[in-house]
Amino acid sequence: MAKYIFVTGGVISSLGKGITSASIGRILESRGLKVTLMKCDPYINVDPGTMNPYQHGEVYVTDDGAETDLDLGHYERFTSAKLTKFNNVTTGIIYNAVISRERRGDYLGKTIQVIPHITNEIKDRIKKVKDVSGADIVIVEIGGTVGDIESLPFLEAARQFSHDMGKENVLYVHVTLVPYIKCAEEIKTKPTQHSVGTLREIGIQPDILVCRTEKPLTTELKEKISLFCNVQKEAVIEAMDVQSIYQIPMVFKKQILDEIILSHFKLICKFSDLEKWQAKVVERVLNPKGKIRIAFVGKYIALQDAYKSVYESLTHAGIYNDAEVEIKKVDSEDIQKFGSEKFLNDVSGVLVPGGFGYRGIEGKISAIRFARENNIPFLGLCLGMQCAVIEFARNACGLKGANSTEFKPKAKNPVISLLQEQYKVKDLGGTMRLGAYPCRIKNNSLAAKVYGKLLTFERHRHRYEFNNRYRKLLEKKGLVFSGVYPKKGLVEIVELKNHPFFVAAQFHPEFKSKPDNPHPLFRGFISAVLDLQRGPSKAK
Ligand code: GLN
């Protein structure tokens, strides 16, 4: 019988429910259990694919091409769970399914209601995740904050789970804030008491409280929370702010959160093997030997979450190479206004991430030119590759007006354009080239060197492609097409010879990087930067 853990959040949003869920997954996996994780998002959008990054943050893409919440990125980075479109549901998905069934007449004249029809649909989706994954433990994170109107059906479904499956098979974790009030010099438990009270009104008594706090919780405070919230004292977990999110599994482990969960489920498991995580990830992220600065030229840089997986991937590559990667966020529109020189003079690498729309594009193109001409290692991702192609076509091949038809539909030289099949597309949601596709890597290329193999599967999320009509010309001028999707001849990776590291990919390698297993392109990029820093004689 599978076990279910529901993770809810109280008091305020952005408490780190996603990282809490992922870390619980990690500590349970280290006990030999197979885990999977799922996110329930209370908004009405079917998926976040059509949302502005400032609304939602990064859209995380799974192998099977689902556009999902960025918390799924945390789940995949912390655990070995393979997530699919089933691992993220939204109110939009649930209502869509129920209303379509109603229209077909499947409910045979019944009145369709939140309970039981919507809640049943939610429960079925959760059970489906268990069936598809074959996991021993399903961790279900419920988005939003307890007390919100939107998340009520999800919380009600979570409540029903322990009724349906038996209390010993279901566990509730509540992530809450225990604020420190500076002027009173006191830590306050009242918001947590209220939040647990609200949860109880819905019928959920949490088994575990994860308390986000700036200051350590004293034994007295833990006892107080335990008493008022009716949670065992050991199950009041202190989650203090830490330097790196990758410390969290260790923070939980120290407080025997894994044991508390296993004893609730009456499971006997092997000892934990988290030492490797501590040695390979935590020690290294906290004590790097060197430091490098990389410019990150994007347009949503003001929002921490907009490029989550890319930032994390840089950290992973730093961990591997024993260096701290400082990310200098540069607004591409500023480069457009003031020139590359002003912003890129003090960096040892340039990264241009994905994006949509013309705003800021010319700044990205200038930044790439600066990196190409000054031998600064460069990594381009998706739109970053498209900009690299445009830059090369314009400035190295003299192709006037080279552009993407996304920005200039009647471009004189459309080096990036739509595939025939995309012209027919009318809906914006879920219609891009999405998910994993094979990429054949060219022998003896830089890509082959960093990958150490000639075939890889990488995740996509874009509509436009390199226009193969220009391939010969660009090749003649020195652009190497080192990765191709064989079935359709689509360009996946481009690179330059006679440059320390100039690689750009049409796919999103950031979705497959892990702290203990960085993506080869990020790893190669950061090691090229370090090699240059060390000088030719000391290069690895
Ligand atoms: N806007 C580009 C396209 O649709 C790139 C997308 C991206 O960077 N994810 O092809």
Automatic annotation (TrEMBL):
CTP binds at residues 13, 148-150, 188-193, 224. This is CTP synthase. Belongs to the CTP synthase family. PROSITE patterns: GATASE_TYPE_1. The lineage of its organism: Bacteria, Pseudomonadati, Candidatus Omnitrophota, Candidatus Taenaricola. The keyword Transmembrane helix does not apply. It catalyses: L-glutamine + H2O = L-glutamate + NH4(+); UTP + NH4(+) + ATP = CTP + ADP + phosphate + 2 H(+); UTP + L-glutamine + ATP + H2O = CTP + L-glutamate + ADP + phosphate + 2 H(+). One of its GO terms (cellular component) is cytoophidium. Homotetramer. It comes from Candidatus Taenaricola geysiri. The active site is at 382 (nucleophile), 508, 510. Catalyzes the ATP-dependent amination of UTP to CTP with either L-glutamine or ammonia as the source of nitrogen. Regulates intracellular CTP levels through interactions with the four ribonucleotide triphosphates. Pathway: Pyrimidine metabolism; CTP biosynthesis via de novo pathway; CTP from UDP: step 2/2. Pfam families: CTP_synth_N, GATase. Allosterically activated by GTP, when glutamine is the substrate; GTP has no effect on the reaction when ammonia is the substrate. The allosteric effector GTP functions by stabilizing the protein conformation that binds the tetrahedral intermediate(s) formed during glutamine hydrolysis. Inhibited by the product CTP, via allosteric rather than competitive inhibition. Its EC number is 6.3.4.2. Residues 303-527 form the Glutamine amidotransferase domain. L-glutamine binds at residues 54, 355, 383-386, 406, 463. GO terms for molecular function: ATP binding; CTP synthase activity; glutaminase activity; identical protein binding; metal ion binding. CTPSs have evolved a hybrid strategy for distinguishing between UTP and CTP. The overlapping regions of the product feedback inhibitory and substrate sites recognize a common feature in both compounds, the triphosphate moiety. To differentiate isosteric substrate and product pyrimidine rings, an additional pocket far from the expected kinase/ligase catalytic site, specifically recognizes the cytosine and ribose portions of the product inhibitor. Mg(2+) binds at residues 71, 141. Residues 3-267 form the CTP synthase N-terminal domain. GO terms for biological process: 'de novo' CTP biosynthetic process; pyrimidine nucleobase biosynthetic process.
